[in-house]
Amino acid sequence: MRKLNLILLALAFVIPASAQTALKAGNAAPTFAASSVDGSYYDLSSMRGRVVVLTFWSTKCAICRSEIPKLNGFTSRFDEKKVVFLAVTMENQEKVQTYLKSNKFNFHVLPDSFGLLLQYADRDKQGNIDMGFPSYFVIDQAGTLAYRGGGWDKTEELDTRISKLLTSK
Questions:
Q1: CA within 20 to 30 Å of 50's CA: 20, 85, 165, 169, which one?
Q2: R_g of the chain computed on alpha carbons
Q3: What value, to the nearest 5°, has the Cα angle with vertex 17 and ends 15 and 20?
């Protein structure tokens, strides 16, 4: 009976911990394929050899709205043949297109991407999604997660990480 109690106790700690995704730099980036608002198709495996920057955002996120102009200026510093900028949102195509009419975003915007968010988001102990907006993931040329961050004004950190990847490969 004591052995059974110990096993049940161990499982009580192991199961919630396994629900926490916790992608870290050095992990293989989860693969994905998604369409952008302009109809282009993006598949992580076909972007090997390029740095991929994922920004998870929402039209409802005040920080995201203030970050978009900074991110727009930032993207112009990199050659699109070497770096791909993807803006991932769970919101539907119609809502995103309406938003983009008055808020230019130089990233390739991927609407309806709840499945993609599930692959990159952490989980809390109850298994609930735990991801703040904006969140940033930089994937290196080999498909490995090189950087993960979130919150206010990460353009300098993103610039440093991307530049380092471009000069090291």
A1: 20
A2: 18
A3: 115
* Angle formed by the axes of helices 62-75 and 155-168, nearest 10°: 40
Q: Which two tokens stand for residue 122?
A: 């952490």
- DSSP character at residue 134: S
147 SS3 class: strand
Strand 108-110 and strand 122-123: the pairing is unpaired
C-beta neighbour count of 167 within 10 angstroms: 7
Global confidence as pTM: 0.85
Q: Do the beta carbons of residue 124 and residue 20 sit within 8 Å?
A: yes
**Would you write out the chain's pLDDT as a tens digit for each of its 169 residues?**
554 343 433 434 444 444 445 889 999 999 999 999 999 999 999 999 999 999 999 999 999 999 999 999 989 999 999 999 999 999 999 999 999 999 999 999 999 999 999 999 998 888 888 899 999 999 999 999 999 999 888 999 999 999 999 998 5
Kindly report each contact of residues 13-19 with a partner whose C-beta sits within 8 Å and lies 24 or more positions away, as own/partner: 16/125, 16/126, 16/127, 17/125, 19/123, 19/124, 19/125, 19/126, 19/127
Nearest CA to 116 out of 124, 126, 125, 108 is that of 108
